[in-house]
Specification:
The chain is built from 15 helices and 31 strands. By secondary structure, the chain is an alpha+beta fold. The structure holds one RNA strand.
Length: 594
RNA sequence: CGGGGUGUAGCGCAGCCUGGUAGCGCGCAUCGUUCGGGACGAUGAGGUCCCGGGUUCAAAUCCCGGCACCCCGACCA
């Protein structure tokens, strides 16, 4: 394709509102333009990338026997009411009414419609299994779109849904998807970690996310090099480390003498302040946080050097949680924020107290079912808020001075021990490009999607759902593969295979050779972008590097001798080759490219 | 939803504090010179200064209200 016949509005300067590298480069390279917050135009180059990604996805989905179809994006509310999500999901769902005043929604995902279809059309176990998929728009009214195309309000998604008679069938469909996804990401040329993920506190079935490492990503994952354990930090269990200097506190199994003692700590609210004033390590302080679970206050405890992960608390409590307002803290504990603690709570108060496993006394460790690993070394006595203004307690002993529930609440951090093998965990940041869920009968039961089994018994279909965000794959690829000059597309998803730069458009010999090269490569099946614009050479080279096609062929001074240059975008030598041989040289560089 | 920031030519920005002629770079148009790493000169087009209200002889500039967009946090089938 001739550049003069293409619309590729490249720009020299970074857009002012871009933060992520991929955002800047995709705007500068003429791939995308923002239309409104979280809503993007895919320009011709960007759309070509998307089409290539989608093609790979289609091939791999077809390869596991999945069937493509297309579902509506405008849904009547009643399907969503039937699944319960019309009320469960808040403002993230775009809602509207039709002229007759009927409630409608813009689809943010398609479990309901697919299940609706299954409920009408699948009747017998003989109709199973099925995997149906589509590449379709999703609408989510994100509170804060960001990162260019990474977090948006309208986006393309490949979503597939499996329908099986039983759990064994679901396992098989799930495994098929894992196989297909491995191929897809490998072919798209992006690095990926498949990690255990939160299936949401309503489900509880197994789920995985595919995280592509990038500083622009919003997810953090915990990884163990030694045994392969990998999980999103919102889920990851870990053995708390970082207790240097505390081992001494553990040595004695004797009861510490005396009850907790009050210490005046005026205007000392944060862990750092308390630590400084009392001369105690943060790890020997109990951090007490008050949350509202629905309308019930709950006190959550973690070690002072740890961070609470709210979704872990939410999952444990089986309720959405939010930090309590200062007046709610006062109502629940009788004390102002900054000095609350688990000891000395109001008599008769019903404040539920949940402590992280790392606070569990050594004597209570182990032996309990489902106990998650606690801490390698833990203090015997802690400092904690006294529930009196400007006062803390020291010498607090968990289990003696108060008896909380224990749960895994803290966020895993780098250096913590792997819950499986104890080796140190690594934390990596990344983009969630895909996810897979075992839904079970969560949708089939309420929506009445059942089949008759061999015995003539009606059974709800066992479902799975599986998503991929093609634009996120593109962004992840750019994040992982770029240099100071621009994008270095993985070859399978580049907008064109070959960028043919004709240095002098008005030079007859160059025009002739460029045309011949273009035609020859095209005839061999390469997609060629022929820059025939009347621009200065430097301008065109800069654009070629910005746009990032894997192979560049330059037709310049030596065209009259039938000589052109070829080089890989990823780097390496720039070679002079006979124009007539460009096919084999392109093939060679292509094979070498990633 | 909390906190912060921005809104002036297609893009990137200055001007605002201290009210009075709207400016710079890039891009764009025409002509000429250039032509292997984002050229140079000349000429030119292009503005509801986000919107509404107020103060003032006079508002891009000061005041009030709104909107949009960005960033941090919260949220995130």
């Amino acid at each position: 394709m001739r550049a003069t016949a293409l619309f590729m509005p490249t720009v020299k300067e970074d857009p002012a509102d871009a933060e992520a590298v991929s955002h800047k480069l995709m705007v500068r390279g003429g791939f995308v333009r923002q239309f409104a917050s979280g809503i993007y135009v895919m320009l011709p180059l960007g759309w070509r990338v998307m089409q290539r990604i989608c093609r790979i996805i289609r091939e791999e989905m077809d390869g596991i026997g999945a069937l493509e179809l297309s579902m509506p994006t405008l849904h009547p509310a009643d399907v969503w009411q039937a699944s319960g999500r019309y009320d469960a999901i808040g403002q993230e769902m775009f809602r509207l009414q039709d002229r007759g005043g009927r409630d409608m929604v813009l689809a943010m995902t398609h479990e309901e419609v697919f299940t609706w279809l299954a409920s009408r059309e699948l009747r017998s176990y003989r109709d199973l299994p099925q995997i149906w998929y589509q590449l379709q728009l999703k609408f989510r009214d994100e509170p804060r779109p960001k990162g260019g195309v990474l977090r948006v309000r309208e986006f393309l998604m490949k979503d597939s849904y499996s329908f099986d008679l039983d759990d064994a069938g679901l396992e098989e469909s799930y495994a098929k998807h894992i196989g297909a996804y491995d191929h897809i990401f490998q072919r798209c040329g992006i690095d990926i970690y498949r990690v255990e993920s939160d299936s949401g506190f309503m489900g509880g079935a197994q789920a995985h996310e595919y995280i592509s490492p990038s500083p622009a990503g919003e997810d953090r994952i915990a990884l163990c090099e030694a045994c392969g354990y990998a999980a999103n930090v919102e889920l990851a269990r870990s053995v708390a480390g970082g207790t240097d200097g505390l081992e001494a506190l553990l040595k004695s199994d004797e009861e510490p003498e005396g009850p907790p003692r009050e210490v005046a700590t005026p205007e000392t609210r944060t862990i750092d302040e308390v630590s400084g004033l009392l001369g105690v390590l943060p790890a020997a302080i109990i951090k007490a946080l008050v949350y509202m679970a629905g309308d019930q206050p709950v006190m959550a405890l973690v070690r002072g050097d740890h961070d609470l992960h709210e979704s872990k608390l939410a999952r444990y409590l089986r309720s959405e949680v939010r930090a309590a307002l200062p007046e709610e803290v006062l109502a629940a504990t009788g004390c102002e924020v900054g000095f609350v603690g688990p000891v000395g709570l109001p008599e008769g108060g019903r404040l539920r107290v949940v402590a992280d496993e790392s606070l569990r006394p050594a004597t209570q460790c182990g032996g309990e079912d489902g106990a998650t690993p606690g801490s390698l070394a833990r203090p015997r006595e802690y400092a904690a808020g006294a529930n009196k203004p400007h006062t803390h307690l020291v010498g607090v002993v968990v289990g003696r001075d108060f008896q909380p529930e224990f749960a895994d609440l803290r966020e895993a951090r780098a250096g913590d021990g792997c819950p499986q093998c104890g080796q140190p965990l690594r934390i990596e940041q990344g983009i969630e490009v895909a996810n897979i869920f075992k839904l079970g009968t969560k949708y089939s039961t309420p929506l009445g999607a059942t089949v008759l089994d061999e015995g003539g018994k009606e059974r709800p279909i066992v479902m799975g759902s599986y998503g991929i965000g093609p634009a996120r794959i593109a962004a992840a690829a750019v994040e992982q593969s770029n240099d100071e000059r621009g994008i270095v597309w993985p070859k399978a998803i580049a907008p064109f295979d070959v960028h043919l730069v004709q240095v002098q458009v008005k030079d007859a010999a160059q025009s002739e050779v460029a045309a011949a090269v273009h035609d020859a490569l095209s005839a061999e099946g390469w997609e060629v972008l022929w820059d025939d614009r009347d621009e200065r050479p430097g301008f065109k080279f800069a654009d070629a590097e910005l746009i990032g096609c894997p192979v560049r062929v330059t037709v310049g001074k030596k065209a009259a001798q039938g000589v052109v240059e070829i080089e890989a975008r990823r780097g390496g030598a720039r070679e002079e080759i006979p124009a007539v041989d460009c096919g084999s040289h392109v093939r060679r560089l292509w094979e070498a490219a990633s």
